[in-house]
């Protein structure tokens, strides 16, 4: 499974009140569980800055990660970006496997 990091920014029109965030979350996560059962959610954070949320999940491939992003975009007025991620130790192992030139 590949790890993906998704940042999400809500549009000002997306939600009318703070409690609507929980409804949005339940609706979106329900669709992800039903439509992308192979996705394993690892972490979610609310953040300050240019994005409102950072989520980390695992998916078998990029197509499934794109489906996750599409579900978020479909059921709420949001902008999302998804980045594949590699744990640092694995990244160092990849570096060591490169030829010395």
Give a verbal description of the structure.
- The protein is α+β, with helices and mostly antiparallel strands and 101 residues long.
- The chain has a single domain (2-97), classed as Dimeric alpha+beta barrel (Alpha-Beta Plaits, 2-Layer Sandwich), CATH 3.30.70.1060.
- Helix content is 40%, strand content 31%.
- A four-stranded antiparallel sheet has the order 2-3-1-4, with helices on one face.
- A hairpin with a 6-residue loop joins strand 2 and strand 3 (53-59).
- Helix 1 (20-35) packs antiparallel against helix 2.
- The protein is elongated, with a radius of gyration of 16 Å.
- It holds the Pfam family GYD.
- This is GYD domain-containing protein.
